[in-house]
């Protein structure tokens, strides 16, 4: 057992004049000099009965108390400021504002110090992400244009602690004046190098089905899982093409209702606002038709738009279309669920293709838009635990796991059934070649969509506002990096990297 003096010096911060603060829970305690350490030790025994184990572990591994999550008051304040800025999408310079400081009970910190903490914390998280990626992982990415900058968000997809893990690796702009495949590949290599990885460790790619992404997969000689949501949106747009006349009429009506005078008149009869169509998102078409049905009776009270109201036959077509859109929207939302697998997507697409033949050209397994149909088919069979063809096995060669070696100890056969055991053993040897191939768990959880990156860009719009256009891309990338990988850092992250 260590001396009481050393234990108390380890767990308590000496504030002077007999005042101490517990570094485990922050409780203040008093202990007059020359009176021993009974008051401090009683606190440890009562509130932290496992303190001896923590102390012994620290001595054995030469690990500071911060590694157990215990940090100084100053580091805790810096962490709270950083947490506030990252999670609430605040300006980095907000911590310098006198009004902000006056409203906070935390000790003030400068924006320069905050940026240093941002860098320290990002470095600490990067080390953890590097370990999680391991030697086999996938890459998922998408692009986002904001103003004159085109950002590319890159995620690493790995299997950690029994589940799929998607870690943001980078969010940075393309500054080469081009968005072709070669520029993207160079960016991938630079990003992977930051985590001491290379392209040879990448087992698959997940992205939209556009020509550039397919070209990237071809050049890298890697299978591409085309985003199922992207394929589905294209298929639904193909289905909606036959209703374009009716949808254009409703959209023209909604545009008229958005005019100031007409909107004021409509507000007298309903609290619902008109919804216009966004040509790039078919979901907005569903919302527009749904809103049209809800407020049609109120619209008829607005005389200025009477000529834009669809007639009876058009109205019936729109109501019939709305029922179909409700079904299609349920599929769209299911595709966005994080637990939706490649096998689930295959079942959904097969049924939708049967019910809506016009959409089959985009949804069938061998559709022209699919870059690597054999690979996707193999992943579906792995999820369903069914037998793969020879070509499918070649496509998922990277995921095949060597069977666990059996012990070399020979089992002693009983004398009474010696012959039968010989025959049984021979039968087992003859059937050994037919054993089921084992695959890496990552193959069962390959994401069928790149919706994770889409959600990232939706969050980014809350950060890069018109008032923050001068934010450096490096600071913007670190803020997004820490926000997405929030579970990998805490107050101790500010200490371990110093």
Automatic annotation (TrEMBL):
Q: Which InterPro entries match?
A: RNaseH-like_sf (IPR012337)
Protein name as catalogued: BED-type domain-containing protein
List the source organism. Answer: Phytophthora nicotianae P1569
Organism lineage reads as: Eukaryota, Sar, Stramenopiles, Oomycota, Peronosporomycetes
